[in-house]
Amino acid sequence: MSYGVVWFKRDLRLHDHAALCAAALEGPLLCLYIIEPSLWQQPDASSQHYHFVLECLQDLDDALARRGGQLLVRVGEACAVLEELYRAAPFAGLYSHEETGNGHTFQRDKDVALWCQRRAVRWREFPQTGVIRRLSSRDGWAERWERFVAQPCLPVPPLRGRPLPLPLQPWPSAAALGVFPFDPPARQCGGRRRAIVVLRSFIEQRSTDYRGGISSPLSAPTACSRLSPYLATGCLSLREVLQATLRRLDCLPEQNSRQRQGLQAFISRLHWHCHFMQKLESEPDIEYCNMHRGYDGLRENEMDASRLAILMEGRTGWPMVDACVAMLNHTGWLNFRMRAMLVSVAAYPLWLHWRPVGLWLARAFLDYEPGIHWSQLQMQSGTTGINATRVYNPVKQALDHDPQGRFVRHWLPALRQVPDTWLFEPWKMPPALRERYNLHENVYPAQPPVELDSATRVAKQRLHGLRKQAAVKAGKAAIVTRHASRQQSLGSVTPTRADAAARQLDLFA
């Protein structure tokens, strides 16, 4: 008897899983996850991502076991594993979600499509977010997004499993796979069960502090939703998160304006989440190339690798920058404003190209989502051709978001005794004071690599000078047509509610 294979990728859940539901309607199915060595050896992957995924897989396997099923995890390249499985027990259909991943997964999916064609296997792919494949125009995109997220979430279907045609394999270690060895000691843990706990705590309580709390690195760890790694791996679907948020809004009294505003702001960001992913879906090359090719050569040929090294080591001499790197190395997470500041410092005073900076941050961010990541790297670096220049001064950011120096002193022990006057600009301290507080060069840098104000000013002049050139101006229109929002304000989601069945759906299954 024929059967279908549900190929799990970055959709590690059973709930609201269109591919699983479609396969279950057709007959017996087999649930497959492939640990692809070449994928984990990519320069944007690190061991924290792999360990997080293993935690998600364990939860997924447990959820299947409770329903009488089992997850087959195989190690190998995708086409080779599918061929091995097909030879052991031929299958008629392959089911998966559409993936907006990095360039490696894009090419892998093209190879899988050819394999399916040769084997006469029907591969059905289903949208997982509001991202639209083969989108011809951005016109009407926001309305299509709203229609998608308003559809009822899909319940877990009855599963008709079949005996595994291949034996189970042990899950290899990150070291055995050759994954970049970075796993922060205080990173978030993976799995749907943990994701549900985080979602509940946010929409029920922590969202009260969302507006006003997400900019400062002091308040952001609890004020932010912290759902991003679970969305990136698909432990939660974007639609179920949005609908859970809307249900919570329904229950909140009007006088609870602070939490209502927080949840409404969060909904707006879920819209932007897909808006940025759509850019990579529509133009995969922006992972590697400037979105506006008129900016080619702006920084590439002047990269100072030593500056990138001190940034990655958190030894720039700008305390707010170095404290953020220390937090990132310990937790795998930073709030958005501090991420933007890191990229701004890299792109302007340090004059670094966004690609190597982006690879470092991709490995460092547990919630690395390629579509959002590369779009944001280019936007913050000024190479999209359509966005305003965003330059974050690290001294001003410290004064605005850490005025008492609590964040800097927590993450930079060497500066804990430094008086407030010098804390954010320690290079200005008289030598006698540096000696008193033991700020020797091997303890904390005596000087930043460049003079902040003048280096930033020169960088902006170079960028704006290029932007004024006629050829660069002429290239802007095509980028607006392909990538720009068609609304003045994205994220104005109308409070359309799913039907009564969706209201009663057990989100926490």
Question: Could you explain the architecture of this structure?
Answer:
- This protein has 509 residues and is mainly alpha-helical.
- Among the domains are: 4-128, 3-Layer(aba) Sandwich (Rossmann fold); 287-483, DNA Cyclobutane Dipyrimidine Photolyase, subunit A, domain 3.
- It contains 26 helices and five strands.
- A five-stranded parallel beta sheet has the order 3-2-1-4-5, with helices on both faces.
- Helix 12 (238-251) runs antiparallel to helix 13 (257-282).
- The longest helix has 26 residues, at 257-282.
- The radius of gyration is 24 Å and the shape is globular.
- The chain starts with a strand and ends in a 5-residue tail after the last helix.
- Residues 488-509 have low confidence and may be disordered.
Question: Which keywords apply here?
Answer:
509 residues; five-stranded parallel β-sheet; 5 strands; disordered C terminus; mainly alpha; Rossmann fold; globular; DNA Cyclobutane Dipyrimidine Photolyase, subunit A, domain 3; 26 helices
